UniProtKB/TrEMBL annotation:
Coiled coil: none annotated. This is CoA transferase. Gene3D superfamilies: Crotonobetainyl-coa:carnitine coa-transferase, domain 1, formyl-coa transferase, domain 3. Pfam families: CoA_transf_3 (PF02515). It comes from Mycolicibacterium duvalii. One of its GO terms (molecular function) is CoA-transferase activity. It comes from the Bacteria. InterPro entries: CoA-transferase_III_domain, CoA-Trfase_fam_III, CoA-Trfase_III_dom3_sf, CoA-Trfase_III_dom_1_sf. Residues 374-406 are annotated as: Disordered. Keywords: Transferase.
Length: 822
């Protein structure tokens, strides 16, 4: 039971975990948090994460790395010898509902336990396979790491991050692994809604594209220009104040005007300037940095908050736990086995229904129990010695109310009605997942305040229907319907209430005061529709001292610690400027699925608080974990990283499409065998033959030498030549792709990741789809283009019982419309 006495939504849902690495372990952690019984099958030496520490802390024999202890809370561990044929693992699979799989050692190295072979023997299962490029296609067996996947995705250069005088930099902290795990949890639970019995094939390259780039292909194809053509610092961005680092955002024209006023330079405001906001800020960089340097962090943040300018402290492993907002919200908890600090769940549900946090298992702790069972359909009948018998997740008898949804045809969310009151990126990315998987998503805008992504394409207002030409809006809103309602009017709010009566889910992502000022709290919405799932996605949460602060991705990333690990050690951190939004969206979608499962079992609605910063804290967890467990402060290291040596970007001989000597390749060597392969591909030069370089610690100690020599070798070759030479030898390597060239990747073509979408105003344009494919379909994801503003006013309002005359009066009164109000 949960702490409130409510049965966790996934109680009785049995998941076998045949994965290794962060992605699979994070996926099953999210499932275990919601009450699923997760049985982790490990080789005799254990999951490699048991011996992992990003800081290199020594893991004493008989103990586990702190990150593993975080990811494995509430799970079970069994050991299976690879190559044995006693039926143990197959018996586990026969009694499970789902399997999470990734490549690695142990049982999964046996061809009998590949995803397709398992599905053939156990057709009832949802098998979720997490791989670098997907199970099929020309790159399916190529070597990769998160670092090289970030390069292929375009995420390293996607939003112009970094400075032009140095190599671009990747987003630190293994965020791509967590993104893949979150998407895998959504795919697994979506499959459950239609009865499972399918193979889910998830590509980490595709999750990186969705998490680290901002619809660059659609942008380039629709507007004829890339989002960014050069690296430039975000100004002010992360800057050094008197007493530390602070992040100050300037993402809109109004925020730039307010920043000018806040710093005492109203004369900088030029509403007629032909320069973009970014260009204007860069012109004043010296004055802005000087102003920041003359204030304390608290002084700047108090002023910025008063001016409604996004801002945040720059968190790291040492200070994040003590920030006043996180203290007030109790954002961190104590690991139940090893006592270090870790983030709480990435979302909150009212009434509380998540499973209690239980200690991570020791290696093979439950092997004897599972081997001794005489199983029926579920193998978990009976208590497990030494575990809390009050919790299903600890092995208590499976409740009879936990029967799975029946198998049905059609899309997972068919029949689900979602009222989408979201804007910009985080909220729409959540509802877009639901729409692409079959939900009827009704996007609610206002002619006075259209979705913010309609306004950021740089289309002159003199262009016909300029508000319909945003590639970002187009990329985020296919398959949705759209209505406009003036929610400042009594009539508009009354129509919204009528719409809510028809809804299963309501999603909004305004600051808390916005809906509260309209009286649309959860209690008010539940009074209209008692079984509704209401999802609120504020940046910083519904309470705490920062709750009303405006939040964009960059300040969320700074506040959670993601920015701290991104950039060079001798410079201020760079804002990733990307992952904070889609990461919040996918975690909110996971939470919706958990809440819907609770409703399916009980008939009760609930409120999900999916704060952007809580989701970001979860994927930055390793920083506070390493600091509290080992006293180690993780630092940014440019393009080097803890999981590979060497790991870096190297300049090739190519001239890029902008006429610059600025074409890079990413190389990451994770094993000694890969180092030997790299050395052979280089022709075994004398410098590479030193014995110390044959070991990871030796390569790390002499990383400067390796970088210098690899840099010389790469500088004499094209990027294609480098990739061809190293990839055929099994070395993880990638071109640092310009993101608008994602459609050039053969693997994405083979998987159909981009689909051509027709639109009544815009040309036919490739749009990215879902990062996973299912053996049960759909074959096509985008079934309708992003809607025009108010396109479905008449259709939706007629469904609510309004007549043609009623609708005409609403338009005449300005309650609805199809163009932005002047």
């Amino acid at each position: 039971m949960s702490d409130s006495g409510i049965e966790p939504p996934l109680a009785g849902y049995v998941v076998v975990d045949l994965s290794s690495g962060i992605a699979g372990n994070y996926c099953t952690k999210l499932l275990a948090d919601a009450g699923a019984t997760v049985v982790k099958v490990e080789p005799p030496q254990g999951d490699p994460l048991r011996q992992w520490s990003a800081s290199g802390a020594q893991i004493i024999d008989g103990t586990d790395g702190a990150l593993f202890s975080f990811l494995a809370c509430s799970k079970h561990s069994v050991v299976a010898e690879p190559g044995t044929d006693d039926g143990f693992v197959d018996a586990l699979l026969a009694g499970a509902d789902a399997l999470v799989w990734s490549r690695g050692s142990g049982v999964v190295a046996d061809p009998r336990f590949g995803p397709a072979a398992i599905r053939a023997r156990h057709p009832h299962l949802t098998v979720t396979a997490i791989t670098a490029f997907g199970l099929d296609g020309p790159w399916s067996d190529r070597a990769a790491t998160e670092f090289t996947l970030q390069a292929w995705s375009g995420g390293i250069v996607g939003l112009g991050r970094g400075a032009p005088d140095r190599a671009p930099v990747y987003v630190g902290g293994q965020v791509g692994e967590y993104l893949a795990g979150a998407y895998a949890s959504v795919a697994t639970l979506a499959s459950r809604l239609r009865g499972g019995a399918e193979l889910i094939d998830l590509s980490m390259l595709e999750t990186s594209i969705l998490g680290l780039t901002y619809y660059p292909v659609s942008y380039y194809e629709m507007l004829g220009r890339p989002w960014r053509d050069a690296r430039r610092l975000t100004v002010p961005g992360i800057a050094r104040a008197k007493d530390g680092l602070v992040d100050i955002g300037c993402g809109t024209a109004q925020q730039w005007f307010d920043l000018c006023a806040m710093t005492g330079h109203v004369e900088w405001i030029d509403e007629e300037s032909p320069l973009s906001i970014t260009q204007q800020a860069n012109e004043k960089a010296d004055e802005l940095y000087a102003w920041v340097a003359d204030q304390t962090v608290d002084e700047i943040r108090d002023l910025a908050t008063a001016f409604r300018i996004p801002n945040a402290p720059v968190a790291n492993g040492a200070n994040v736990e003590g920030l006043d907002h996180f203290v007030a919200r109790r954002s961190f908890v104590v690991n139940p086995r090893d006592g270090f600090t870790q983030p709480g769940p990435p979302y909150r549900i009212t009434p509380p229904m998540l499973a209690p946090l239980l200690p991570a298992p020791r290696l093979g702790e439950h092997t004897e129990h599972y081997r001794s069972r005489n199983w029926g359909h579920h193998p978990l009948a009976g208590d497990i010695p030494g575990r809390d018998s009050s919790s299903t997740a600890a092995g208590n008898a499976i409740p009879r109310g936990a029967s799975a949804p029946p198998r049905r045809e059609g899309l997972p969310f068919a029949g689900l009605r979602v009222i989408d009151m979201t804007t910009f990126w985080a909220g729409p990315s959540c509802t877009h997942l639901l729409a692409m998987l079959g939900a009827d998503v009704v996007h609610v805008e206002s002619t006075r305040h259209p979705d913010g992504t309609r306004l950021i394409a740089g289309i002159p207002v003199t262009e016909p229907q300029w508000w319909e030409r945003s590639p970002i809006f187009s990329g985020l809103n296919t398959n949705k319907r759209d209505i406009t309602l003036n929610l400042q009017s009594d009539t508009g709010r009354e129509l919204l209430r009528k719409l809510i009566v028809t809804a299963d889910v309501v999603v909004e992502n305004f600051t808390p005061r916005v809906l509260e000022s309209m009286g649309l709290t959860y209690d008010a919405v539940a009074a209209i529709k008692p079984d509704v799932v209401m999802v609120r996605m504020p940046g910083f949460g519904l309470d705490g001292p920062w709750r009303d602060n405006p939040a964009f991705a960059y300040v969320i990333e700074a506040a959670a610690g993601i920015s701290w690990l991104t950039g060079y050690p001798d410079r201020n951190p760079f804002e990733p400027y990307s992952v904070g939004d889609p990461n919040a969206g996918v975690h909110a979608c996971h939470a919706i699925l958990v809440a819907l499962e609770h409703r399916r079992r009980t008939g009760e609605g609930s409120m999900v608080e999916a704060a952007m910063v809580d989701a970001a804290l979860s994927i930055a967890a390793e920083q506070v974990i390493e600091y509290s467990a080992y006293g180690a402060l993780l630092e940014r290291t440019g393009n080097r990283g803890p999981a590979a040596a060497p790991q870096n970007l190297y300049l090739s001989a190519d001239i890029d499409e902008f006429g610059r000597l600025d074409s890079w390749v990413a190389i990451a060597v994770t094993t000694d065998a890969q180092w030997a392969a790299l050395r052979d591909a280089l022709g075994n030069p004398p410098w590479a033959m030193a014995d110390e370089l044959s070991r990871a610690d030796g390569r790390r100690a002499r990383h400067d030498l390796v970088d210098e020599q690899l840099g010389r070798w790469c500088a004499e070759r094209s990027a294609d030549q480098i990739v061809e030479a190293l990839w055929r030898s099994g070395v993880p390597v990638a071109k640092v792709l310009q993101p608008h060239r994602q459609t050039h990747i053969d693997q994405l073509k083979a998987r159909g990741f981009f689909e051509a979408v027709e639109h009544p105003v815009n040309p036919v344009t490739p749009h990215s789809t879902l990062p996973f494919r299912s053996s049960r379909g759909p074959d096509r994801i985008h079934t309708a283009p992003a809607p025009l503003l108010g396109q479905h006013n008449e259709q939706v309002l007629t469904e609510l019982g309004l007549t043609a005359d009623d609708i005409a009066r609403l338009e005449a009164d300005g309650v609805i419309g199809t163009a932005p109000a002047r």
